[in-house]
Amino acid sequence: MNFESVHLAGVGTYLPPAVTTEQAVRTGRYDEEARAASGLESVAVEESLPAVDMAVRAARTAIGRSGHRPEDFLGLLHSSTYHQGPEGWSPAHYVLLHTLDRPVSAFHVQHGCLGLLAGLQTAALRLTASADPDAAMLLTAADNFATPLVDRWRSSSMFVLADAGSSLVVSRRGGFARLLAMDFVSQPGMEAMHRGDEPLLPPQTPVDRVMDFETRLEHWRLKWAEGGAIPLGDFGELIADSVQRTLASAGSSLDQVTRIVHNGFNQDPLNVFLLDPLGLSAERGTWEFNRRVGHASVSDFALGLEHLWSSGQVRPGDQVLMLGFTTGMEAACALLEITAEPGGTG
After folding, report:
1. Residue 248: how many CB atoms within 10 A of its CB?
2. Buried (b) or exposed (e) across 282-297, using 16+ Cβ within 10 A?
């Protein structure tokens, strides 16, 4: 899907202090074997600030950088993977109150780790339909896993969960990057991988069980060992096809892409599921940044993009590919062109 006149006008992030993986091992929170395999140096951990407040801090930065006024915004899209507060409460409207404070729509986007990219596509479509040349949309994303119901260090062998908040201002007027194209693709036959053998009715709430992806995957490993069918597919090939289709629609290719922004997975899963199917090295991605942060769920993409842009690793004219996947299984990619230096205008 191609886009015309859709830009990123501002980006903001909130990252708490990091806990080293060595410290986590010393205190018994992490296993040494898992630490060595992960390649991670540290993980961002927020002990006291709620997820929505991290989102608010990031959004205020993004709005300030964008040059947009509150009255320019058509709405807000807030994304998360974990609970944000009381059941039935609207975290999106809390973020709206403490940022734009205007009577516009505020949606809560829950699409796993692709929540921010789902919000980006929705915002781009909404702006494309608007006749206002100054129209903008505010995207926010945040998770805080500092709860007894989540073991951030052991919930999955693919990642260690990090706390963070992030925000993007999507604009028709201009900005530091232009959205060229996006694509989403899924392989729904693999949804059972993250369901395991847990019942669907009544729904499992946080009061009932600790979040544990690894146990659900172990259910299918045992099925496989017994000779049963498991919900697997060539997901890497599906991702590669989606990327090639997106690049082709924008008249680009992987050779023209300067850097890749991806999920903050551990080293081996990152290579196996995202980089290897595309023939990419870790140096093309954001691994050197992610290994000091961990997997910040919905915020990985804004964190990586801001890091590359603010540190001068991408410059005007460079193309950046945001690429990742989530449970479902579903993958998404977005191709951007950098149009301004940090502190400049597009």
Report:
1. 11
2. bebbbbebbbbbbbbb
- Please give the average per-residue pLDDT across 141-162, as a whole number: 95
CB 331 within 8 A of CB 186: yes
Instruction: Give the H or E element holding residue 260.
Output: strand 257-262
Whether 56 contacts 98, CB under 8 Å: yes
Taking the C-alpha atoms of residue 73 and residue 85, their distance in angstroms, rounded to an integer, is 25
Residue 307 CB partners (closer than 8 Å, separation 6+): 286, 289, 313
On whether the CB atoms of residues 174 and 346 are closer than 8 A, the answer is yes
C-alpha dihedral, 25 to 27 to 28 to 32, nearest 10°? 10
pLDDT of residue 239: 87
Alpha helix stretches (DSSP H) within 252-293: 267-270, 287-290
- What mean pLDDT comes out for the span 4-33? 97
Contact 187, 329 (CB under 8 A): yes
Give how far the C-alpha of residue 206 lies from the chain's centroid of Cα atoms, to the nearest Å.
22
Place of tokens 């903008």: 136
Angstrom CA distances, 333 to 57, 181, 183, stand at: 26, 8, 6
CB atoms within 10 A of CB 25: 17
Token pair 């990742």 is found at 324
pLDDT in tens, 319-345: 999 999 988 789 999 999 999 999 754
Neighbours of 254 (CB within 10 A): 16
pLDDT at 228 over 70: no
State pLDDT tens for residues 44-60.
Answer: 999 999 999 999 999 99
pTM: predicted TM-score of the whole model, two decimal places: 0.90
Instruction: Using DSSP, state whether 150 is helix, strand or coil.
Output: strand
Q: Render 16-37 in DSSP notation, one character per residue.
A: --EEEHHHHHHTTSS-HHHHHH
